[in-house]
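Researcher: Structure prediction, please.
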Amino acid sequence: MTQDEKRENAWLRDELANTQKKLQASEQLVAQLKEERKNLELMVSVEWCNNRDQNESCKRKRTDLAIKLFPDEENQDKIKMSSTPPSQFANQTSGYEIPARLRTLHNLVIQYASQGRYEVAVPLCKQALEDLEKTSGHDHPDVATMFNTLALVYRDQNKDKEAANLLNDALSIRGKTLGENHPAVAATLNNLAVLYGKRGKYKDAEPLCKRALEIREEVLGKDHPDVAKQLSNLALLCQNQGKYDEVEKYYQRALDIYEAKLGHDDPKVAKTKKNLAGCYLKQGRYAEAEILYKQVLTRAHEREFGAIDSKNKPIWQVAEESEQHKYDNREDTPHEAANVDSPTVITILKNLGALYRRQGMLKAAETLEDCAMRSKKEAYDLAKQTKGSQLLTSNEKRRSELMWDDMEFLDDKSIKP
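Model: Predicted structure follows.
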C-alpha cells in the first residue's frame, strides 16, 4: 500500500469515527427530545379547573394517600365522599382522595428527583402550586398535597428548613379543610417530627409524634400496624433523649402489634426486635439483647433453610461451636446467612459479633463478622446483577426516598465492643 493510500485510509477512519460520534449525539438528542415532549404532553393533560364553580362541579371520590412524602404514610382506609367546597371539608367525617393528575405529577417529580434532576423537579412543583392556588385557592387539600411533594424534593436536597416550612403550611391547610383528627393531619405531624428528629430537635419532635399517635389510635384503632409504625418512631425519639423506660414500652407494644397483625416472619418484626435490642445495649442489658438477636437469626435461618437440626444450624450456633473448638485445628467452612439482602440481618450479625467480643469470644465474633461481610458483598453483587447498581450509587450520594423506609430515621448503628 502506497503512502497516499495509507493517508486516505487514515482520513476515512477519522471521518467514520466523527460520523459515528455525531450519530450517537443525534440519537441522544432525539431521546432527550422525546422525553421532554412526553413531559410536556403530561403537563398539558394536567388541566386545572378554571374557577371554583368548575371545581365544585367536578364530582369525584376522594381519599387521602396521606402524603406519599414518606413510604409508610399511605392511609389504607379510604372513605367515600361527594364533592364539597374546601371551607366545608372540616365539617365532614369523610376523607379526601388525591386526584389522578396530582398522583401522576407526584410520580414524575419523584422520578426526576431520584435522578438528581432537581432543576426540573422543583419548577414542576412550583408551577403546579401556582396553578392550583389560582384555581382552588390557598386553603385546599390539593395545595397541601403539592406542598408535601415539594417538601420531599427539598428534603432530598437536605433543605430541611424549607421542607419543614412547607409541611407546616400543609398541616395548617389540612387541619382547616379535613379536620384536626384526620389521618392526613397525623401523617403531616409525623413527617414534621421526622425532619425535627433529623436535625436533632428531639424535644420538639416528640409532642408532634405523640399527637400523630393519638389521631391514629382514634381513627384506626390501637392495634393497627400504622399505630405500630408511629410507636416505633416515638421510641426512636425517646431513645435519643435517654428515656429508656418509654423506649422499651413503645417498642414492645409495636412488636406485639406487628406479630399479631402481620405475623412473626414479617420484616418489621425483625427490625423492631433489632431496635429493641439496641435499647437494651444502651442500658448495658447485653444478655437480653443477645436473646433478641438470636431469635431473629434463628427465624431467618428457618425461613430460608428449613427446620433447625444437628446438620442445619443457624449462624450464631455455628459461631459458638467454632469458639468451643477453636483449638481443634478444624478447617472453617463458610456458612450462609439467611436473607443476604436484608440490612437487618447484616446489622444483627455485626452487633452480635460485637457482643461476643465483649465476652472474649473472639473466634465466634470473627465467624459472624466474616459472614456479615460476605452477605453484604453478595447483596451488592445481587443489586448489580438486577441492574440496581445505579440506584444504589444514587442513594449513596444523596438522601433518597428509599433511605426513609419504615420511618427509622434514627436507626441504631452497630455497637462497638
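Model: The chain has 16 helices and no strands.
Researcher: Thanks, that helps.
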